[in-house]
Amino acid sequence: MVRRDYVNEAVELLKALIATPSVSRNEEKAADVMEKYLRGYGLDYYREGNNIWCMGPHRQEGLPTLLLNAHIDTVKPVDSWSRPPFVPTQEGDMIYGLGSNDCGGGLVSLLQVFRYLITRQQPYQVIYLASAEEEVSGKDGISRVLPLLPKIDVAVVGEPTGMQPAIAEKGLMVLDVVAHGKSGHAARNEGVNAIYQALEDMRWFRDYRFKKVSDFLGPTQMNLTVVKAGTQHNVIPDRCEMVVDVRTNELYTNQEVLDFIKTQVKSEVTARSTRLSSSHINPQHPLIRRCIAMGMTPFGSPTLSDQTLMPFPSFKLGPGQSSRSHSADEFIRISEIEDAISTYLTLLDGTEL
């Protein structure tokens, strides 16, 4: 089979997936579509929930394992779509549809690459994984699958990066911060105003700068994004609730940042989760060095992906552009899929990990 056949089959599968709504936590029918195509390709596969994966047929002890991963779920369509989001619309080189760019292009390209790689002896084992719930970092997504897989040595994640390697990715931690006061009558200036109690902490979140700055991701950032307090104009509020969005670089763990914040503010601080850590891969890793030799430029990505849940080296590399993701009239170019398949094969075929 020539590469043009791979491109045509990738486009056919992409259109089938666009036509199958797969908003996060409702990916069952899209997973069924993946099963149908995998059977049609003659591939053995496994399914856990709405996650599906294939492993190369000739496993050898002692070889490292490469994971090729992309997700099948999408965000909900925004109201400003000018085309039907669940109808794959081809106009020349462009295919419009929800999930086409994020990350249908990477999903279908990596599958074709997997099909090719397993036809040849490789110096590694290879696994292809189409995962669910990426857009919500759900516990029934890749977290549910990784314990079922062999030890992974490195992963390529097919998020849209313009086929440039994103070798670091910021983590996410959402904090619920509560300042406490004492209620009283505003006319008599009674009580302790929780809003005033919170002001000093608000200023700290605004002004503090973490010392360790990443070459690829810049500083760890904190933003106060939600504030709620008070019940009516004549009652001194006894509680001020805040939400702080924290984006960590790879030089800090989420737990380290959380522990430090608790020593700096007077308010009560609770993290909704610390599991979405920053991720990175050594720029000297053989795959990254090969990317650079092929003319690619490594960079740091501000957006979150399933990389954050991977306890092993990984990087994002996929067709399309991150700026198209989660936007109206999302699209991918067929030429981008073709280039992705060719680039992946040049990068991976016969390469030592």
Explained architecture:
The structure is a single chain. This protein has 353 residues and is an alpha+beta fold. Helices cover 28% and strands 23% of the residues. The protein has helices at 3-18, 28-40, 100-117, 142-145, 194-207, 254-264, 286-293, 334-348; strands spanning 46-48, 51-55, 65-71, 89-91, 94-96, 125-131, 154-157, 166-169, 173-180, 184-185, 221-229, 235-236, 239-247, 268-271, 279-280, 299-301, 314-316, 331-333. The strands form five sheets. Strands 1-2-6-3-7-17 form a six-stranded mixed beta sheet. A four-stranded antiparallel beta sheet has the order 11-13-9-14. Strand 1 and strand 2 (51-55) form a beta hairpin. Helix 1 (3-18) packs antiparallel against helix 3 (100-117).
Describe the structure concisely.
The chain is α+β, with helices and mostly antiparallel strands and 353 residues long.
In terms of topology, how is this protein built?
Layout: H1 3-18, H2 28-40, E1 46-48, E2 51-55, E3 65-71, E4 89-91, E5 94-96, H3 100-117, E6 125-131, H4 142-145, E7 154-157, E8 166-169, E9 173-180, E10 184-185, H5 194-207, E11 221-229, E12 235-236, E13 239-247, H6 254-264, E14 268-271, E15 279-280, H7 286-293, E16 299-301, E17 314-316, E18 331-333, H8 334-348
Parallel strand pairs: 3-6, 3-7, 7-17, 8-16
Antiparallel strand pairs: 1-2, 2-6, 4-5, 5-18, 8-15, 9-13, 9-14, 10-12, 11-13
Largest sheet: 6 strands, mixed
Radius of gyration: 23 Å
Shape: elongated
Beta-strand residue percentage: 15-25%
Mean pLDDT: 96
Please write the string of helix (H) and strand (E) elements. HHEEEEEHEHEEEEHEEEHEEHEEEH
Instruction: Assign a percent range to the helix content.
Output: 25-40%
Structural class: alpha+beta
Strand line-up in the sheet with most strands: 1-2-6-3-7-17
Distance linking N and C termini? 26 Å
Q: Give the strand tally.
A: 18
Low-confidence stretches: none
